């Protein structure tokens, strides 16, 4: 099973690395990092880069597609090479997935029309502008399309996928190997539980929704 993890300038590292830690441990799995051009791709924090081993043109038949989000989403939404690749490979995938604002990219490619999907809370209201039906859940499945909310939710998404692909026992074993048992020190992990003033502050900062 080949998973194609899309990279583009300004993606958020954990959106990809979190799911990678889970999906790469499924027996028989192959994870390929791909971008418009092969080579290092800088994350949203600029101090880190991941390497795209293959250009999109060489990744033609993945079983699973993973699209991360991040501040670079806006540019990716307008990149015809990214959107055309998604449209080309999607008919052959078993799963087409995203984390965070990566769902906006799937929607911009026309893959989420009329489908339920989630995204980072700050981008959730943008989904209907692209034809999707926004759902404020951590992980959403609609047919073969699976979307995760912000950043850390990608780990939950990957565990769900591991269970569906390899069975619950394998998924549980992977969860134990990575010791995924979050106990956050604050109740600020979602817009529903964070202090309202903090939510409004972040809405008005550079985390603003990509312009469409």
UniProtKB/TrEMBL annotation:
CDD domains: GATase1_PfpI_2 (cd03139)
InterPro entries the record matches: Class_I_gatase-like (IPR029062), DJ-1/PfpI (IPR002818), INH-QAR (IPR052158)
Domain DJ-1/PfpI: 6-161
Signal sequence segment: none
Pfam families in the record: DJ-1_PfpI
Domain of life of the source: Bacteria
Protein name (database record): DJ-1/PfpI family protein
């Amino acid at each position: 099973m080949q998973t194609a993890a899309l990279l583009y300038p300004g993606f958020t590292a954990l959106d990809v690395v979190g799911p990678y830690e889970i999906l790469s441990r499924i027996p028989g799995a192959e994870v390929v990092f791909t971008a418009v051009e092969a080579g290092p791709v800088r994350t949203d924090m600029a101090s880190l880069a991941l390497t795209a081993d293959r250009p999109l043109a060489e990744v033609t038949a993945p079983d699973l597609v993973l699209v991360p989000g991040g501040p670079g989403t806006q540019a990716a939404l307008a990149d015809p090479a990214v959107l055309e690749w998604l449209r080309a490979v999607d008919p052959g995938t078993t799963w087409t997935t995203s984390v965070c604002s990566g769902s906006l990219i799937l929607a911009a490619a026309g893959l989420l029309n009329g489908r339920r999907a989630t995204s980072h809370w700050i981008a959730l209201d943008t989904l209907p502008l692209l034809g999707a039906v926004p759902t404020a859940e951590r992980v959403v499945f609609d047919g073969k399309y699976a979307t995760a909310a912000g950043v850390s939710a990608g780990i939950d998404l990957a565990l769900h996928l591991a269970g569906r692909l390899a069975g619950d026992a394998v998924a549980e074993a992977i969860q134990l190997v990575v010791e995924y048992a979050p106990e956050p020190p604050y109740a600020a992990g979602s817009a529903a539980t964070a202090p309202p003033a903090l939510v409004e502050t972040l809405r008005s900062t550079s985390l603003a929704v990509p312009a469409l």
